[in-house]
Amino acid sequence: MACFERASPALKDILLKLYRAERPFEIDHHLYEFGSVEYHIQSLASDPQHAYLSISTPLLSQGILLSYGLSNYTIHAIKKVCTDIVEVVKPAREGYQLTLKINLEKIPQGKGSIKAITEISTVQAIILSSQLKEMLQNVSSQGISEGMYKPIKLVYHAREPFYVIKQPEKITAVFPMRFRENTDVIIATAFFQELMDVGSSESWAKVPPCSWSPIPPPELRGEALEDLSTNGGFVSFDISSRHVEGKRLDKTVWSLLNFHAYVKYHVKCTRGFIQRRMRKRLDSLVELLQKANGQEEQLCAQQVQGCKFVRKLVNLSKSKSTKAIKRIHCPLKIHGFSRFRRQWLRIPKFSSSTRYVKLD
Predict the structure, then answer these.
(1) What backbone phi and psi angles, to 5 degrees, belong to 171?
(2) What is a GO molecular function of this protein (predicted)?
(3) Strands of 98-103's sheet, edge to edge?
């Protein structure tokens, strides 16, 4: 839903450049951020000491808006930010819910300028959290009528609504969780179960109790079926009066507004960690296989070399033995012995007197 940083980094950078410019210059810049947020920064050369900032942002709840688009509580909260520097312009520029007039000459020098411009850049976070903060401030009210137990659906992104249910002495915030990937559902379910285990421990006894269920809680009976169709279950927080006292109110509100974003960030980081470990494990296995193959090839090469050496020895021994046999077979050569062998060592021919008659 919201981002982790309250101050818009891009808006802060533009305002710092406009403030630190050595020469005044005109600017008419439109800036768009995640969540359909639009900023319009304008500065005229004819009026270099002033800059105008217009903001358009989706409201947290779908209620009846005033003529300038924001409630008195929200306007009062915005006026507390840099009261000497910022002035709310009424009516706001057409197409925007709020227009601020920034006096650049009143911004303090040095490090004070960064602090002041950072506070101005948090105006969208103030608009977003003011309505929920107003609800949580009345948590200990004893005059709660029976009709106030009906869940209040708060929508910032269409796919990420959550519910606030006012009850005696507490407020219950219920978050329907939806994920696109089945692997994200598995990681998120493990995270929710661990969150319940940690929240029930003694060391975290002061934080709002957390519970998770795969089915809708009883407080959401009667709500639209499309809003209760989830694959990640329902996460609930019970907020009591001590969680919204003093400075804790702002921290509690910001934690609730960022819960969807925090869960998605945790799931994304966990999935990336698992993938890195799998790739690292795969690389180590491949390295072991390559090392084993190298050793096997080296062993085969040694065996082949040994076979070749044995074969050479056999061939060498054969050649030596045949030569020796040849030498032994005919050690002396006598002239005329071949003629003597033809004449006297001739095999005689015998003729048989018996004759055979071929039978038909």
Answers:
(1) -125, 130
(2) structural constituent of cytoskeleton
(3) 27-33, 37-44, 47-56, 98-103, 86-88
Instruction: Please name the residues in contact with 307: beta carbons below 8 A apart, sequence gap of 6 or more.
Output: none
Give SS3 for 165.
Answer: strand
Going by the DSSP 8-state scheme, the letter that residue 265 receives in this structure is: H
Q: What is the pTM of this model?
A: 0.69
Q: Which CATH class is domain 140-257?
A: alpha beta
Two tokens, residue 345:
């060592």
Which residue is listed with tokens 């990937």?
181
Taking only the tens place, the pLDDT of each residue in 74-113 is 888 888 887 788 889 888 888 898 999 999 888 888 888 8
Task: In whole angstroms, give the CA distance from residue 256 to residue 175.
Answer: 9
CA distance 57 to 1: 12
Per-residue burial over 305-319, b if 16 or more Cβ lie within 10 Å, else e, is eeeeeeeeeeeeeee
- Options 1.20.1260.10, 3.40.50.150, 3.30.1460.20, 3.40.50.261; CATH for 9-130 is 3.30.1460.20
Q: Where are the domains of the chain?
A: 9-130, 140-257
The 8-class DSSP code of residue 347 comes to: P
**CATH topology of 9-130 equal to that of 140-257?**
yes
Please tell me the distance from the alpha carbon of residue 58 to that of residue 80, in angstroms, as a whole number. 22
Q: What is the pLDDT of residues 263-295, one digit of tens each?
A: 998 999 998 998 888 888 888 888 888 887 777
Rounded alpha-carbon distances, angstroms, from residue 240 to 167, 175, 248, 252: 10, 17, 11, 11
Long-range Cβ pairs for the range 142-146 (8 Å, 24+): 142/168, 144/168
